[in-house]
Amino acid sequence: GEALEVNREVNCVTDFIHGCEDQLQKLKKQKEKGLLYGIPISIKDHINCKGHISSGGMVKFLGQVKEEDSVIVQVLKHQGGIPFVKTNIPQTMINYDCSNPIFGQTLNPLNLQKSPGGSSGGEGALIAGGGSILGIGSDVAGSIRLPSSFCGLCGLKPTGNRISPPGCSDRPFVLAVTGVLGPMARDVDSLALCMKALLCQEMFQLDPTVPPIPFDEQVRLRGTPISPPAHQQR
């Protein structure tokens, strides 16, 4: 409901993922609860999802319905997450705005005169508007970091090849910098939880090219700001 409300105002959702209600029923019967149990998760348009298109904002991909979920979607589901919407991007995704000829312009919910940034702009707008609490964007040259900044959110661009790629093999260009998927949310703890959930055996088995290194909670905690030495405190 919230996602629909936000979408009406800022035009950030490209598709609702059918079957998410069935998935919730299936989850309730499972004995083991994953780290993302019951959390609705929004995903960027180009991440492959069974029965849906990955348009990249380009008309030529509109007829190509994907036959299987990309690894990240499989892992999110394995951890109890519920991918429920796909979100808007700029055409070709090499842009810091968020507009394309198919789905139109996405606006910034904090100021409708402004852009939410790109290319994960639909994610930024939906999460900032209160329509999602956790989303998956992607970043080559700022595509998670810019919308996170423009929309007042937290985002993480992981190290290259840390998370299995989106599964779209139709990319019309080759990039010199590795594109990576990463989480976007309202706080850092949500990003950490998402990374911890993604970096699991399931991911390493489904994509053997991803180094099987789990999330290191200690490294994150070492990054916590500490008080200055007593003699510097005023």
Automatic annotation (TrEMBL):
Identify the keywords attached in UniProt to this record, alphabetized. Hydrolase
PROSITE patterns per UniProt: AMIDASES
Any one Pfam family match given in the protein's UniProt record, by short name: Amidase
Q: Which residues form a coiled coil?
A: none
Matching SUPFAM superfamilies, A to Z?
A: Amidase signature (AS) enzymes (SSF75304)
Molecular functions per Gene Ontology: amidase activity; fatty acid amide hydrolase activity
Q: Does the keyword Mitochondrion apply?
A: no
The membrane spanning regions, by residue number, are none
Quick one: a GO biological-process term for this protein? fatty acid catabolic process
Domain named Amidase is located at 5-212
User: Which family does the similarity line name?
Assistant: Belongs to the amidase family.
Protein name per its UniProtKB record: VDHAP protein
List the source organism.
Answer: Prunella fulvescens (Brown accentor)
